[in-house]
Amino acid sequence: MVDTPQSGMEQAILLAAERLFLERGLALTSTTDIAKEVGCNQALIHYYFRTKDKLFETIFARKAELLFSDLDSGGAAGASFEAMLRSLVEAHFELLRANPRLPFLVINELVTNPSRIDSLKLRLGGRVSKTYERLETALKAEIAEGRVRPMSVFDLLFDAVSLNVAVFLGGPILKAALDLSQDDYERLVEARKREIVEMLLRGLRPDGARPEGEDGSR
Amino acid sequence: MVDTPQSGMEQAILLAAERLFLERGLALTSTTDIAKEVGCNQALIHYYFRTKDKLFETIFARKAELLFSDLDSGGAAGASFEAMLRSLVEAHFELLRANPRLPFLVINELVTNPSRIDSLKLRLGGRVSKTYERLETALKAEIAEGRVRPMSVFDLLFDAVSLNVAVFLGGPILKAALDLSQDDYERLVEARKREIVEMLLRGLRPDGARPEGEDGSR
DNA sequence: GTCCTATTTAATAAGTCTATTATAACTATT
DNA sequence: AATAGTTATAATAGACTTATTAAATAGGAC
User: Fold this and answer.
1) Contact with chain B for residue A83, Cβ under 8 A
2) Cβ pairs bridging A and B (under 8 Å)
3) Which of A57, A201, B168, B218 is deepest in the core (most CB within 10 A)?
4) What is the pTM for the complete model shown?
């Protein structure tokens, strides 16, 4: 939103750099690699972005923002908690499916260079909390009604994000290890999506809950 | 088991290298760094291991083996499925707690250098399948008895590993982002352990299952 | 066409990294 | 104590890296 218009070359560099950073990470990508990918002189990278790190920061900030984006989609007014959670988790899953290397890039970079965590915190500060609070209200209500076992939003989100992210972190490794075809792999991903929602929703049920009918509590 | 006895210096290099590789990954660790850490000449690294990559391979193989180790602990003869699964998941969790940087190292390395996947496959080939098959038999029996919803072992293991691994991949980032003290962080990890087991076990329950009593099916 | 500015390139400085080589310092054996 | 073998170091080659600089090229205004 705050982006200034960019020249074609600047765009080309950003795109190529993004591709390479996502594929191999910051450390294993040289400005020479990027220039080769773009088909331009290596000095041009520095002409537009001064340093490799500034270039990375630009890309990283945008991508990380995407990863922690609000995901407000779910929850048309009267929707049930289950529907809202389902749509939230599925939206998150789809976000990752569209950007499968993002978790790798972010984790890799935040682990090897923790100082970037702070700058991210500043940038994303309140963003996450919105979804968090919306979910918290809804979850507390469900628990009070006995439709969900007592648990924290923190754990619920941790569970959901863990399950979703792991698909795209481990997926490529599993694909290679099991010699899956691209088709088979995509089927696996799709199957995981269903299983994750299933596991999460069942995992929320209180003791002795019925599957779909009216609540037995109270 | 096949290890030859090692000199003190060789051991010292292995330990220092392991520490650094776990902390920053292969790419960001130089042989000079390792030598500095050990307090020896840089050439000595090469004297013992010829190349940086061979040194890494040695460490990586050992550590990855650990990560995929059998985890046979669980399941004393007559134990219930629930008890067996619980002890399996907890053992896996404890393995990770004792080696918290391992998932980062392995994922980082397998993603940036997929050719290592093949060599791992050879090395670990049958290892995993043992636990897998034991679990498969037990799970199928449970499903047949109606005590567990229909699902694959693959998904069950994927769920469990996802939840466990994510704690140690995301934990350090969360710790920094939320400014947690070491104590608070350890409490968070412990809480996650309980929640993960809870979520998994509830997630397995078939529709309309009762919490602990005798099964209502059939 | 000429001038001015923005873009692009070639050349290269300065540094790091891996790996090798030749030499020195130990250790043990006789 | 002399010798042989092992372990350690200093020095350095050679390949990369990032970043800068100065020169070349392109495009628009006049």
Assistant:
1) no
2) 134
3) B168
4) 0.92
